[in-house]
Amino acid sequence: MTRALTRLTTVEARLFLREPMAVFFAIVLPVGLLLGLGTTIPGFRDADPSLGGQRFVDAPFTAMMVLLSIVTLGLSVLPGTLVIYRERGVLRRLSTTPVRPGALLAAQLLINVVVSVVATTLTLALGHLILGVPLPGSPWAFVAIFVLGTLTMLTIGLLLAAVTPNSRVAQGVGSALMFPLLFLAGMWLPRPLMPEILRRISDFTPTGAFGQGLMDALGGHVPQPLHLAVLAGWALAAGLAAARLFRWE
């Protein structure tokens, strides 16, 4: 079973790399935005009193680029791929072979986790080398929030794949969810500048909790227990619902 999973993961990874749009939106776009905007907009590199003296390009913007990559994978790439496989009967055919459909699901999850790690590593490394963005001041806290947040977004993606009838709907619903969730995370209006009521709403969304946790860890602080609890709650609820509702054909 382990050998079959390894071979299946290898094949799926090659298929992923042949999808230029998936690679672009999950890896190239976040890194490109960080470097492009960080080098061309002077205000991004100026200390901002409203952000505690940080530069906007440091924890806030870097955290949003990490978040953008993972949200793209969770709400677009993963559900879109799984729904297409279901539409084309791939999952049904796998059920008649020694390689069960669950192996394909595991392979897809593994690939998306690896891609998120690659994208995050490139974002942090290039941001540090080119823009002087500090590396996570609390590395273990960053790893913990990264793992929990990635798990949360991927389980939401599984739930999206479970409840959407076809790939067109999956892409539409994923896009419709992505933009308000990114807004609530602070993508366009940093959380410290949000009105209090909006910031409290953000605290209980998966992207708001994840984004703030990333910013805390990048700034050398431990993520707040509230945000860890919110992410764990979303991951548990979405995971249970996806397991109950997921259809193989």
UniProtKB/TrEMBL annotation:
The keyword Membrane applies. It is found in: Cell membrane; Membrane. Residues 21-249 form the ABC transmembrane type-2 domain. It comes from the Bacteria. It is a multi-pass membrane protein. Keywords: Antibiotic resistance, Cell membrane, Membrane, Transmembrane, Transmembrane helix, Transport. The keyword Kinase does not apply. The chain crosses the membrane at residues 21-41, 61-85, 105-133, 139-162, 169-189, 226-246. Belongs to the ABC-2 integral membrane protein family. PANTHER family: DOXORUBICIN RESISTANCE ABC TRANSPORTER PERMEASE PROTEIN DRRC-RELATED, TRANSPORT PERMEASE PROTEIN. This is Transport permease protein.
